[in-house]
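Subject: Re: docking follow-up (pyridoxal-5'-phosphate)

Dear J.,

Thanks for your patience while I sorted out the input files. As discussed at Tuesday's group meeting, I've set up the holo structure prediction with pyridoxal-5'-phosphate included as the bound ligand rather than trying to dock it afterwards. The sequence and the ligand SMILES I used are pasted below, so you can double-check that they match what you have on your end before we go further.
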Amino acid sequence: MSETHPEANDGRAGARSRALFERAQRSIPGGVNSPVRAFSSVGGAPPFIRSAHGARLVTEDGATLIDYVGTWGPALLGHAHPEVVEAVCKAARDGLSFGACTAGEVEFAEQICALVPSLRGGMVRLVNSGTEATMSALRVARGYTGRARIIKVDGGYHGHADMLLVAAGSGAATLGIPGSAGVPAGAVQDTLLVPFNNLEAVAACFAEHPDGPEGIAAIIIEPVAGNMGCVPPQDGYLEGLRALCDAHGAVLIFDEVMTGFRVARGGAQERFGVTPDMTCLGKIVGGGMPVGAYGGKREIMSSVAPLGPVYQAGTLSGNPLAVAAGRKTLELITREDPYPALEQATTTLVRGLAERALRHGVALSSHQVGSMFTGFFRAEPVRDYADAKTCDLQAFARYHRAMLSAGVYLAPSQFEAAFVSIAHDPATIERTLDAADGAFAAVRHPAE
Ligand SMILES: *Cc1c(COP(=O)(O)O)cnc(C)c1O
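The structure tokens for the complex came back this morning:
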């Protein structure tokens, strides 16, 4: 097939995407505004996206692709949901930003607090990204407890704040940068690392760092790991973290930027029945606009300025367009309860993928929680990041390329979760499985 006239669903970068990528690399580092968008680990240039509706993207080369990236999580309702778009347009006509109080932000905060178990009766502060949410939550936890140290999980990603760029998964994992240059040793000296799904390691941290100013202020964790690929918590793990934090007066922070409104309406905390002290939100909460949020118990959130001594601010926080998109999204998931159907569609897909992998003799371990999933290219289930790193990354890269040429857009990394939206109807799932049949064959018999 000629590369200037790809098939209508061949998603590989065609002439126009490649020309744009050439240009992009001159004025944008690596040609991308976030490193996860680079195709370095799967090869080739990224296709440029012109538009997106429902479950599909249209590239600058004119290809129509089934999308499982979902703008990295937010697109639970599919792209450009008409009611969300309408809400944003309406808000825009009334002014893009005021930097002042609005009725919308009050209603939005009330909606969030009603839906997320740990925020019921508590308070929430709006910010502009997941990164801002986690760095602010940790500052609050440290201010509230008067302690310095924090615990994070190896392969857990919480945005790009200095203190959290230690053994972060996702883009940092894909690029083989365990931390980052430019992060001074002092910024991470109070960050303790533990493997996911390992309570003994957390208990050992508490034993080593007794309660007090040098003690542990908080554990920050993705309750379902998503940035090493989708790895569920083992039975009792989240409960165990809750008990350890209670025993030592540390703040349990669930980073639900990915899992919030995704694995259940009330997030992983609702799904697994474990309530953290603080919760970080992002992605879906903004309905596709840049929004983050952090909140928790009233007593803890009372430390935030202007109520308390912990400073945190934002010129565009509570932006009326972003709030309009978020409010409409939360209204829709409340009104329509999309979760049973989402989970069923995802289960059909994940089972279908597993069957096809097996048929082609490709080792694949499938993990699913709600409408997020990852097929790890290894035989055994993945329990933590060390496991995930043993996957056959060459096989993943071949699979990714074959799926893209067959019109299916996946994150260009083994260490990412895939997302299903309400717009992924049975026909779309079926087309994906047909594409996967060929892709697994290509993994076994590389022709390229
Ligand atoms: C995406 C993500 C973040 C960072 O959010 P940004 O909006 O990209 O800053 C933080 N934590 C988790 C769990 C995420 O998945």
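A couple of observations from a first look. The chain has a mean pLDDT of 95. The chain has two domains: 1-76+338-351+397-448, 82-335.

Let me know if you'd like me to rerun anything.

Best regards,
T.
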